[in-house]
Design a protein that fits this description.
- The chain has a single domain (7-340), classed as Ribonuclease Z/Hydroxyacylglutathione hydrolase-like (Metallo-beta-lactamase, Chain A, 4-Layer Sandwich), CATH 3.60.15.
- The protein is 29% helix and 20% strand.
- It is built from 10 helices and 13 strands.
- It is globular and about 50 Å long.
């Protein structure tokens, strides 16, 4: 790979609600020559992107958007999605967005949220349930391709079929009225997005958090001519440490894992189904990931949580950009630099002096 071929942009690295130093979760995987993917889009994600790269570059990333993947239905992971879709529609124009709708992959309850918003402002996208992108569905699709000799089409899973009535009973066929959202759960939509992005697949994996919570695995086509191997990115979403994430992250180029609580708060982590810093680091170690990047910190840690670093571990902070070629190898060295971004204690405000009588 060359510098600039692919990078990860962290637009939000906090949990629950925006705070002074950390916005809620938002990640972009950008490949300038192929397209971009948003992975979770908390409130303010688009604004953070503009802050990070500027208006023109942000519009370019949104214009090249091919897929959005949402891990679960909690608001700090998806509320910023309509703004991004609406911006893309504005940039492409209604005709362009109709011809090239973006694929949104998410938990089944996200369908209702998008359906309600789409009734107010057309989003020009297609929705795919995360369950349609499970490992078993990709394996089944590959087997059917080999048997049939052609790409698999059709409906996957148990949710609405393509162009069927939506949750409010309306028909969402393109051009059928005010709504133009495609509610089909065909894996072929995701395959089309992967083909455009140079990815072999995007797999959703169930995790231990709320109902219908998933981790994501993105595997690229070959980027190394000698070995025929590509990069592999795994994003945990919100979860307790679990074998599903560990297995998915085996040999990953980079594992982005939530680390909501500091070590010593395991009881709280279990109660709220999150991970501690030490638990997240262990997942990356057990999986043999080349780099583990920690994110989704509780807002009680507005700066950098205290923990022992490692040769393969780094901490994400808002507006951090990791180039696959030049940034990932240096991830461990970022820790001290991130700690130096903020003073240990902020100076107390000096009270104004009373004017002399």
């Amino acid at each position: 790979m060359n510098e600039g071929d692919a990078e990860i942009i962290f637009l939000g690295t906090g949990s629950s609600a925006p705070a002074k130093y950390r916005n809620v979760t938002g990640i972009v995987v950008d490949q300038k020559d192929k397209g971009s993917v948003f992975v979770d889009t908390g409130e303010g994600t688009l604004g953070q992107l503009v802050r990070c790269v500027g208006v023109d570059a942000a519009d370019d990333i949104v214009r090249r958007l091919k897929c959005v993947w949402i891990s679960h239905i909690h608001a700090d992971h998806h509320v910023g999605l309509p703004t991004i879709l609406a911006r893309r529609r504005a940039l492409l124009g209604s005709n362009g967005s109709d011809e090239d709708p973006v694929t949104v992959v998410g938990p089944k309850d996200l369908r209702r949220f998008l359906n309600a918003y789409n009734a107010v402002e057309p989003l020009h996208a297609r929705f795919v349930d995360c369950r349609a992108t499970l490992e078993g569905e990709w394996t089944r699709g590959k087997q059917e391709e080999e048997e049939d000799g052609e790409e698999r089409e059709g409906v996957v899973g148990t949710t609405n079929a393509p162009n069927s009535p939506s949750v409010d009973g309306s028909n969402n066929k393109p051009g059928s009225g005010s709504s133009s959202f495609d509610w089909g759960d065909s894996l072929s939509h995701v395959r089309d997005a992967c083909a455009a992005l140079g990815l072999r697949r995007m797999v959703s994996t169930p995790v231990v958090h709320c109902a219908h919570a998933f981790a994501l695995t993105m595997e690229s086509e070959a980027t190394c001519a000698e070995t025929g191997e590509g990069w592999k990115l795994v994003y945990s979403g919100d979860t307790r440490p679990c074998s599903n994430v560990t297995n998915a992250a085996r040999g990953a180029t980079v594992l982005v894992h939530e680390a909501t609580f500091e070590d010593g708060m395991e009881e709280d982590a279990v109660k709220k189904r999150h991970s501690t810093v030490g638990e997240a680091v262990k997942v990356g170690t057990d999986a043999g990931a080349y780099r583990t990047v920690l994110t989704h910190f509780s807002q009680r840690y507005p700066k950098v949580p205290v923990f022992k670093g490692g040769q393969r571990v780094g901490v994400a902070f808002d507006l951090m950009r990791l180039d696959f070629k030049t940034g990932l190898p240096r991830v461990p060295s970022f820790l001290e630099a991130a700690r130096s971004l903020f003073p240990e204690e902020e100076d107390a405000e000096t009270p104004a002096k009373e004017p002399a009588p």
